[in-house]
Amino acid sequence: MLTKESEQFLIELRMHLISKGKNDKEINEITDELEDHLLQAEAEGKDVTHIIGESPKQYMKSIGESMKTDYRQMIGLVPLMILLLAAYFSLAPAIEGKFSLSGGMIMVASIGSVVGVLIYAVLLFKVLPGYIQSKKGYLLMFGTMLLVTGLGVAVLFWYNAQDFQPVFTATPLQNNLILAACIVIFIAAAIYTKTWFTIIIPLFLSLGPIAGRFIPEDVNEDPTLILYTIILLVVISAIAIFLLIRKKKKQKQPTV
Amino acid sequence: MADTTQMLKGILDGCLLSIIKDGEIYGYELAARLESYGFTSFSEGTIYPLLLRMQKEGLVSATLRKSTAGPKRKYYSLTEKGEGELVSFIKRWEQLSFSVNNVLDKRGM
Q: What's the number of CA atoms in the CB half-sphere (13 Å) around residue A222?
């Protein structure tokens, strides 16, 4: 079992190397090798600093400089980013069954994707890895969510005022297909970066639209249904908390 | 410690080659061997950037083997080019240590 510090270091290292455009296979090799080393060193009671030195940043840099940059793969990363962003934009309308495209929307989306790729790249590679183990990380994620939602609402108001004609409106089947594509993209990105960000964030984002799609309008006036919902939520959170505590306890037990 | 690190640059490469020459070895074992020879003040991770570079230069080759616990282990062995580099390192080192000792001995007298 690795300590939090070591795990944190390995995640930061992986993100650093991905952002520097190193080859995937080589990234896996060096992180596996270091994980193996850290496991053995910690089993012997050594401190992380004994392995990676006083400055993890410096150490990551020296590893990065010893690996060759894979430019072909780096070019491949850009489409992934754009796909991810497109998936973020399409997720909510697809869940609500209202996916449509118009000339104006395509314009907004292309400007948005350039800005978005930049923000997203900074967040994913530079900011989040540093906070993944702390409460700050969740606050940061929550703050970003609020900001993105706020921006989204602002753009939506502007967009509605422009009266663009949709050039494409999705049928229910197409909506579901788009939704499936989004899910595949999120999962692929999560596997690729070996992190949970691209699954957790969309999950949060989709809570509202899911409720909008599956709960009929008149529910709001029916007190018994509201009561059921509250009970259901309480039960689900209780189970989640219980599982979380059990997992923590399990982690504390030494594995043989 | 920073001074030792500066001095170690280049020398550590030769030491790694020399240890790898004894037979296939993986990272942790390599660091442990270095420590047992008295290299105690450097951080163990330092060897990995060096190994990566030596692999890129074709001085060592690596194969992945299953280990008893955890992920697959990367075992290093010396290539022909690496053996040549080791021979020339030994020559350079002998020359260098001879000169340095000479300087220090004369000043000490």
A: 9
Contact A53 B46 (CB under 8 A): yes
Give the up-direction half-sphere exposure of residue A194: CA atoms within 13 A in the CB hemisphere.
Answer: 16
State percent of chain A over pLDDT 90.
4
Which of B74, B11, B85 is closest to B42 using CA atoms? B11
| Residue A140: band (very low, low, confident or very high) from pLDDT cuts 50, 70, 90 | low
Indicate the residue of A36, A63, A65 with minimum beta-carbon distance to B28: A36
**Alpha carbons A163 and A11: distance in angstroms, whole number:** 46
* Distance separating alpha carbons of residues B9 and A157, to the nearest angstrom: 61
Interface residue A28 vs chain B (CB under 8 A) = no
The CA distances from residue A118 to A91, A121, A144, A147, A225, in Å, are 20, 5, 14, 16, 43
d(CA A253, CA B30): 30
pLDDT bracket for residue A186 (50, 70, 90): confident
Express each pLDDT in B30-65 by its tens digit: 999 998 998 877 788 889 999 999 999 999 999 988
Contact call for A63 and B70, based on CB within 8 A: no
What single-letter DSSP state applies at residue A133?
A: T
Kindly indicate the confidence band of residue B109, based on its pLDDT and cuts at 50, 70 and 90.
low
Start-to-end C-alpha separation, chain B: 28
Q: Which residue has the higher pLDDT, A112 or A138?
A: A112
Selected residue with higher pLDDT from A104 and A43: A43
Average pLDDT, integer, range A171-191: 83
Q: How far is B19 from chain A (nearest CA, A)?
A: 18
Express the helix, strand and coil content of chain B in percent, nearest 5 each: 65, 15, 25
Residues B66 and A158: their CA atoms lie apart, in Å, by 59
**In this structure, what token pair is assigned to residue A24?**
């995937």
Q: 3-state secondary structure string, A148-178? A: HHHHHHHHHHHHHHHCCCEEEECCHHHHHHH
- Write down the pTM of the prediction: 0.61
